[in-house]
Amino acid sequence: xxxxxxxxxxxxxxxxxIYHVVFKEFLGFDYRLIAEERRDTLITAEGEEARQLIVSExxxxxxxxxxLSNESxxxxxxxxxxxxxxxxxxxxxSREIEVIYGIRLEGGHFYLQDDNEITLGxxxxxxxxxxxxxxxxxVKKDRDQHDRFPAIASLAYQExxxxxxxxxxxxxxxxxxxxxxxxxxxxxxxxxQVYLSHDVDWPLGIAGNNPLRVLKTAAGDVLxxxxxxxxxxxxxxLAKVSMGNVDADINNTFDFIMDLSERKGLRSAxxxxxxxxxxxxxxxxxxDNPWIRKLMRKIHKREHExxxxxxxxxxxxxxxxxxxxxxxxxxxxxxxIYQESWGGRQHYLRWEAPAxxxxxxxxxxxxxxxxxxxxxxxxxxxxxxxxxxxxxxxxKTLKLRERPLIIMEGTxxxxxxxxxxHEESISLxxxxxxxxxxxxxxxxxxxxxxxxxxxxxxxLYSNVIMNI
Length: 468
Prior knowledge:
Blueprint: E1 2-7, H1 12-26, E2 30-35, E3 40-45, E4 48-56, E5 79-82, H2 83-86, E6 96-99, E7 111-113, E8 117-120, H3 124-132, H4 135-139, H5 155-158, H6 166-181, E9 193-200, H7 211-223, H8 228-242, H9 254-263, E10 268-272, H10 290-301, E11 305-310, H11 318-334, E12 343-346, H12 355-363, E13 367-368, E14 387-391, E15 396-402, E16 407-408, H13 409-413, H14 422-438, E17 442-446, H15 455-466
Parallel strand pairs: 1-2, 4-8, 9-10, 9-17, 10-11, 11-12, 12-13, 13-15, 16-17
Antiparallel strand pairs: 1-3, 3-4, 5-6, 7-8, 14-15
Helix pairs in contact: 1-3, 3-6, 7-8, 11-12
């Protein structure tokens, strides 16, 4: 069944992008676009034009001179729609859903239906476009101490839906509205997937480090962290590494990570730093280090993934990202490491819309997995599906794909961020895993190798992975 999508003539490039992502990427439909003078999107099925779905528009009706301005942002507080009253078959996290862009229809409703026509007051296409492109991050100037757009400045956090993938919920609304009109319509089959990634900031905590610093850290294990076991592990590691056994380094948790992944039938991705634009902020190792190269060979031999962890000051610098990726590829080729695709993540999650995406595109990377917030876990892009990205300033679709990150362990545990206990973290992890499963989506988790040092950390990670 081919869908006919009649749409206004405004914002052509933006429409081509969002219709492709929604209809083809996410739902798997064949469709044909027809531009005409109108102020909504009218969807029919080829050969069944008597039935129609009308989707209201707000975002793409904004005058061009107000595009990417404060005036174009959603009006807050957002309106809420009790979807379950109109479409009880729709899977949503709660009975109500936030309306990012939309207009109330006759009688104050967001949904109207008669025998052959359904009208949605929710601007599904504009709202999804707003979330996927990170539209608000260009408009709003809020930044934290690392020049990152913070969660607390986001619409999702302020309106209380950061921990729910609102794009997936909107897709369900669209799907079930269409299914009511065309019962024989079928959508793309999806399966829940888990992506495990590990930013290699400090592959070694002892080797190459100042012994005095290691001793001070061991003392802090006892005095600050009240962890005598960890202190003893660190000191034993120092003794062995001092004797030339680099594999005994306490940060060398890579076999542990890969063993767990393989037991669950998963594949881990390890993202390596290839340059140091901010000194020790980018770690103290180099890709020329024989031990690092041995590690990369081992990861590849065990059929896990290697990727780029672009340095701290690279996120606005296309030439720097290109340089770092070329360096990683060169080292990989020297070690006979070849992959069909190459992805990674920005160090410290430093990312800017749309400059960083464009830089990764120009460097030739396949996907980025930076997009979560450092200060709060959740769905920064509003979705638990991978998707192609769009450059809002150049108004073009890129080949690069975004694989949204849902949780970084440092966000949960960091005192400057959420500061959760291990028990609270497990509860949060399980809740977000179940949310992704509800939509047959992707659950993406970042856990640093250097955050698996204490017995409790090792047990926590094992618990998380084995129960996903």
